[in-house]
Amino acid sequence: MSDRTAGRGRVLVVEDEAYVRDSLVEILRSRRFDASAAGSVAEAVAHLGRSPVDVVLSDLRMPGADGLELVRRMQTTAPDVPVVILTGHGNVSSAVECLKAGASDYVLKPAEPEALEVVLDRALEGRALRREIRYLRSAVAAQDEAAVGESAPWRRVLAMVEAAAASGSVVLFTGESGTGKELLARRLHALSARAAGPFVKVNCAAVPLEVWESEFFGHRKGSFAGAASDREGRFQLADRGTLLLDEVGAMPSAGQAKLLRVIQDGEFERLGDEQPTRVDVRVVASTNSDLEAEVQKGRFRADLFYLLNVVRIDVPPLRERRDDVPILARHFADQIALRLGRPSPELHPTTLVRLFAYSWPGNVREVRNVIERAMILDPARGLEDLDLAPAGASSSPPEGAPLAERELNLRDALNKLERGLLVEAHRRAGGVRKEAARLLGIDPRNLSYYMRKHDLDADSVEE
Q1: Beta-carbon neighbour count of residue 192 at 10 Å?
Q2: pLDDT tens per residue, range 30-79
Q3: Which residue from 239, 237, 230, 277 is spatially nearest to 258, judged by alpha carbons?
């Protein structure tokens, strides 16, 4: 779904007097705000259920429920949306009460266009800042983890993610389980123009068919048995951000046509609503299945596949980028040690040999599990004796397996080991070349040769 330009922000004006309401809408639209209107708190709540907004501008005094009541409701149903109160000179104390209840600001009547513009811009900037802080707190670790790796295949993947991030196009990540598809999707979002917006993930394989529509599109209270309250679906939660459809190949056929429409048109019908809801969401999908084969078998819609397959990024399994294994192991060891409040253990040469030799059927996820298990169950030995065969997995094919399944190229194996030892020696030496050479047992003059041989950055190492 392509990015849309919606002006400076979507504003809902709540005012019971029609001429004032229409005047405010006209003023805001003339200043490039996307303004809509409601004549009461009840109308405002109904509008918010259908169409997300960025800020609410509400009169304080209205028949029935007033602006204070709207602020209180918004704190429960949409705390992320700021409310600006319109009030007369004699009602400033009531406006202050609204601020205590959660309103973001107030402006005095009759409101000058310039004053409205300043207050609404301030409310929008505050909302964007809060969302950005929330996003950064939740995703910064995931972004860092996605960038871990120096192998040529992984650098190519990261370059594709960076190129695709600015496009706003649909992106499809394919690859085995545990290769880091979700981390790459988060990185894509963080590098995009939507970085301040939400990143929402839904596991398509884990949503039961009977609640599929409610999960994705939400529902109104009473729209079906058990619908005790209004609910926002994943598309509404991801408005102005990114929605990751994880394991999209497992989506039921009944839901594929509905998904096709919302990606194409940016709108859907929430259960119990008479009017469609419009959203601005970038869709990203991931799968570990062969979607083209699923299309051929009639289990996945061809038109949906072509819609998702705009920018395709194939994520390689870890066995195809083994140079990254010691780097990942070091990263996870440091991360887990920090969490446990312990010093980070060393990666011993024998451990590096085993890390390179193992086939890693569980990919990056298995590296983390192996390192964490060793550090928790045997902290005294650290990473000296890793358990590399969980759940019956084997680091080499069984006896009698065809030779094609065995990795017998001694030169390749030794090159990988040599590179890993160079990286680890430089880490331990803090970038000091002479100390790294001493740890490796080689003459410092030969270190440059080995670094050039393995395409390592010699200029970044201190003399």
Answers
A1: 23
A2: 998 999 999 999 999 888 877 888 899 999 889 888 888 999 888 877 78
A3: 277
CB 333 within 8 A of CB 345: yes
User: Which tokens hold the place of 36?
Assistant: 């809509």
Does the pTM surpass 0.70? The reply is: no
Q: Confirm or reject CATH 3.40.50.300 for domain 147-316, answering yes or no.
A: yes
- Same-fold call for 10-131 versus 147-316: yes
Structural domain boundaries in the chain: 10-131, 147-316, 319-397+405-460
| Angstrom distance (rounded) from CA 94 to CA 134 | 31
- The type of residue at 206 is A
Do 172 and 311 meet the contact criterion of CB atoms below 8 Å apart?
yes
How many whole angstroms separate alpha carbon 219 and alpha carbon 228? 10
Q: Can you tell me which residue has the tokens 């988060």? A: 186
- Taking only the tens place, the pLDDT of each residue in 354-374 is 888 888 989 999 999 999 888
For residue 444, count CB atoms less than 10 angstroms from its CB and return exposed for 0-12, middle for 13-18, buried for 19 or more.
middle
Topology at the third CATH level for domain 10-131: Rossmann fold (3.40.50)
How many angstroms separate the CA atoms of 221 and 145, rounded? 40
Residue type, 322: R
Classify 200 as helix, strand or coil.
Answer: strand
Q: For residues 340 and 390, what is the distance between their CA atoms, to the nearest angstrom?
A: 22
| Burial of 75 per CB tally in 10 Å (0-12, 13-18, 19+) | middle
The residues with which 203 forms a beta bridge, in sequence order, are 246
Q: Label residue 228 exposed, middle or buried (CB < 10 Å: 0-12, 13-18, 19+).
A: exposed
Written as six digits, the tokens of 76 are 């429960």
Q: How far apart are CA 430 and CA 444, in angstroms?
A: 15
Give the tens place of pLDDT for each residue, 232-251.
Answer: 888 888 888 999 999 999 88
Cis peptide before 349 (omega within 30 of 0): no
Q: Which among 145, 186, 180, 144 has a CA at the least distance from the CA of 165? A: 186
Would you state the structure tokens that stand for residue 258, as one six-digit string? 């509905």
Instruction: Report yes or no: 30 and 23 within 8 Å, Cβ to Cβ.
Output: no
**Distances from the Cα of 171 to the Cα of 19, 115, 185, 314, angstroms:** 46, 42, 9, 11
Classified as helix, coil or strand, 217 is helix
* pLDDT tens for each residue of 112-153: 899 899 999 999 888 878 766 655 555 554 555 667 888 899
